């Protein structure tokens, strides 16, 4: 977190006419919320990094976008645009992930140091509407949207295991082709059946339409992301929001759009595994909870654990072809990538929960409930399934950042055209930065 602010300040010192840095808010724990702006155009692009604490790629992408905007006047003066880059929307959460951010980048190290706050503590969500938003981070983001009225908003997210994809509030014709080109050049798998978008319309391969927000129960809000959010809040300004997902560990099979050999058999296995892991995790938590009264940070770690254990049974039922989950909604048609994504998602839920429980145990100063061995077993099983069963492989940070940067630049160019009423889908990728060499750090 400190590195983001220092690098942004250094960029401003080098380019004081083009760039400026200001504090736009303060987090719950007192960290500054910093906005880096480049250019002086009348049209504003808003880039939000770090809305999910365990997805740090966006901060590095924001800095790279700022460097590109400083170096390429087509992105500022040529487009009459100002880039506004919120370096991290959840600095408190990012700091809680710093146990794995320096590497080595292994699945086990990531899982045991993973943190993501509970649903109600995530700054992009507005479960009670914007007027009743309570988090200072959320209020800051809403105020920025109202101040800037951006023509484009990009929310930078990271997929821990899987592939890259984009979610849009409005169609940007041609974006899917740009993503395909960029993903092929950088060796990033495209997620053609993302779990997050299972019931959402496709706008093209690896591009999905965000549905209008709607009221629902708490578990539906967590699992379907259809609740009101800062993605949709600036809709009245004509803002196009693009949620840009970049993977940390890639899985090639998420790009397999072929028909599955036996859909129902895979779904039964995924649902059965998730139910089995959920029962194990419930038993561990029941034994551990009485020992947590005086454990520092216990409430922050327990909130997401309780969220995950709440939604796991619902998801297992929703994915099971033999079970009615009570919603009256049937599963959509599925290709192989959908099934791979659901397998990854089921493991993700149990692995995240186990990783948070591991931290709770270690913070007790011992193992008073005698559960650490079982927790470690669940973590190791999940990591092995990702690594050996799904062939998950680490994508170097430089490639993650370059992929996300190029997708944002493509969305920017297409949004500029849309704003000008000139949409020409299907053209090759000539967006600024498309031919910039990859940084392989």
Task: Give an overview of the whole structure.
The chain has 441 residues and is of the alpha/beta class. It contains 13 helices and ten strands. Strands 1, 2, 3, 4, 5, 6, 7, 8, 9 and 10 form a ten-stranded mixed beta sheet that branches. Strand 1 and strand 2 form a beta hairpin. Helix 2 crosses helix 13 and helix 10 runs antiparallel to helix 11 (336-363). The longest helix is centred in the C-terminal third of the chain and has 28 residues, at 336-363. The protein is globular and about 60 Å long. The two termini are 19 Å apart. The model is unreliable at 423-441 (pLDDT under 50).
Write the layout of secondary structure elements.
Elements: H1 2-14, E1 19-26, E2 32-38, E3 43-48, H2 57-71, E4 81-86, H3 91-95, H4 98-101, H5 107-112, H6 136-148, E5 152-162, E6 165-168, H7 175-186, E7 202-204, E8 207-209, H8 218-224, E9 240-250, H9 263-288, H10 298-319, H11 336-363, H12 372-389, E10 393-394, H13 397-419
Parallel strand pairs: 3-4, 3-5, 5-9, 6-8
Antiparallel strand pairs: 1-2, 2-4, 6-9, 7-8, 9-10
Properties at a glance:
441 residues, 13 helices, 14% strand
> How many strand units?
10
Largest sheet features: 10 strands, mixed
Radius of gyration from the alpha-carbon trace, in angstroms: 21 Å
For the record, give the distance between the C-alpha atoms at the N and C termini, rounded to a whole number: 19 Å
Strand content: 5-15%
User: In DSSP terms, counting alpha (H) and pi (I) runs of 4 or more, how many helices?
Assistant: 13
Stretches where pLDDT falls below 50 for ≥5 residues?
A: 423-441
Task: Decide which structural class fits the backbone.
Answer: alpha/beta
Average pLDDT value?
92
Overall 3D form: globular
Task: State the share of residues found in helices, binned by percent.
Answer: 40-55%
Elements, N to C (H/E): HEEEHEHHHHEEHEEHEHHHHEH
